[in-house]
Amino acid sequence: MKKNRIYNFNPGPAALPLSVLEEIKESFLNLNGTGMSITEISHRSKDFESILDDAISRTKRLLNLDDRFHVLFCQSGASMQFCMIPMNLLREGKSADYVNTGTWSEKAIKEARIQGKKIKVVASSEDRDYSYIPQNIQFSGDAEYVHITSNNTIKGTQWPAFPDTKGIPLIADMSSDMMSRPFDAKPFGLFYAGAQKNLGPAGVCMVVIRNDMLERVPDNLPTMLKYTIFSEKKSLYNTPPCVAIYAVHLVLKWLEETIGGLEKMAEINRKKAELIYSTIDAGGFYRGTATPGSRSKMNVTFRLPNENLEKQFIQEALDNDLGGLKGHRSVGGCRASLYNAVSLSAVEALTDFMKNFERKNG
Ligand SMILES: Cc1ncc(COP(=O)(O)O)c(C=O)c1O
User: Fold this and answer.
1) How far apart are the C-alpha atoms of 22 and 159, rounded to whole Å?
2) Residues at CB less than 6 angstroms from ligand 1
3) How many other C-beta atoms can be found within 10 angstroms of the C-beta atom of residue 293?
4) What are the backbone dihedrals phi and psi of residue 122, each rounded to the nearest 5 degrees, phi first?
5) Candidates 3.20.20.70, 3.40.50.720, 3.90.550.10, 3.40.640.10; correct CATH number of 21-259?
6) Parallel, antiparallel, or unpaired for β 287-288 and 299-303?
7) At the topology level of CATH, where does 261-361 sit?
8) What average pLDDT does range 72-88 have in this prediction?
9) What per-residue confidence (pLDDT) applies to 283?
10) CA torsion through residues 265, 271, 272, 274, sign
């Protein structure tokens, strides 16, 4: 039983900035002097609309998006995007390129195939257990879009730079690295992220879509599966997940006003990742599973000499108030997720623990 908050390295749902949690707690019974909770006000009220507008404009500022981009808040997680993307954007008789870098890419590929859509897997890192990001990929000149997973939460790899698709719209699942670093959005037709890692609580998926992609959306789709409905109705066709959007807006405010934007966030994230990877690389005790050059700054995956030591490491870490270090159930091992809200001091505490554990057990 923990009485105090611990250092949280969960992969998602994951750590949120303490100041955001405190603000939610403060305002939970009485939002901005309405006398009501965010859970109790109408999604059509001025109060909620200003929260939604604020979340949209902060996203645009943080990501430096021009007027062609629309910020949507969808439901059913990032997993729903795996099906909505081909349904909305892959037109009859055409084909799309997918890059397979692990479980989440595979799921995106599966959902396109279920619909009988024509897709081509143009590169895969399956041959080496998804431990790297493929380079020098030949894209099909006539692809409708290229789909990638920018950060692979389970295997601990991340695209160091996005591929040049020579004008073909890029689409990225950014669930586990959205808002962790600045990037040029211009080549992107769409990018999306389930909120529960870097953006807020579970229950909402942020989708950023470019104007020209909206023109592809066929008329004969179910209403709630059409990007055009979300953009025309500003994500208010039906009742949106108000509480999750409220929390996302606070996280974005924290990113802009407390951290100072994505350049600054990326610098902090770089320091955190460097610290832990240098600890892993220092001796022969820990072994990073991702190839250097493809290593993720968000999810650091590593092994110990054997599974018993891994179990002991995870338990002793928790005893020392360092939680969420178990690797994904499909791969085992250990994983430290270093999302934006995980502070440098949390990573310092973890690396101190790792060094001590190595001294005792190495
Ligand atoms: C990269 C990536 N994509 C997609 C998902 C699935 O997200 P959701 O649970 O929101 O559907 C996850 C979940 O961990 C993820 O890490």
Assistant:
1) 34
2) 12, 77-79, 104, 149, 153, 173, 175-176, 194
3) 10
4) -85, -15
5) 3.40.640.10
6) antiparallel
7) Aspartate Aminotransferase, domain 1 (3.90.1150)
8) 98
9) 84
10) positive
Cα dist. 142→86, 92, 136, 165, 167 in Å? Answer: 15, 13, 18, 11, 10
| Two tokens, residue 73 | 């808040």
CA of 362 from ligand 1 middle (Å) equals 35
**What is the CA 151 to chain-centroid distance, rounded?**
7
Candidates 99, 175, 198, 206: which one to mutate for ligand 1, based on the most atoms within 8 Å of Cβ? 175
272 closest CA partner among 344, 172, 345, 356: 344
The whole model's pTM is what? Answer: 0.98
Q: How far apart are CA 166 and CA 176, in angstroms?
A: 25
Beta bridge partners of 209: 70, 190
Q: How far apart are CA 182 and CA 178, in angstroms?
A: 9
Write down the mean pLDDT value for the chain: 97
Q: What are the domain boundaries of the chain?
A: 21-259, 261-361
Report the distance separating Cα 175 and Cα 104, nearest Å: 10
191-223, pLDDT tens digit by residue?
999 999 999 999 999 999 999 999 999 999 999
Structure tokens at 72: 């949507």
Among candidate residues 97, 117, 155, 173, the one labeled active-site is 173
Distance, in Å, from the CA atom of 156 to the CA atom of 290, rounded to the nearest integer, reads 6
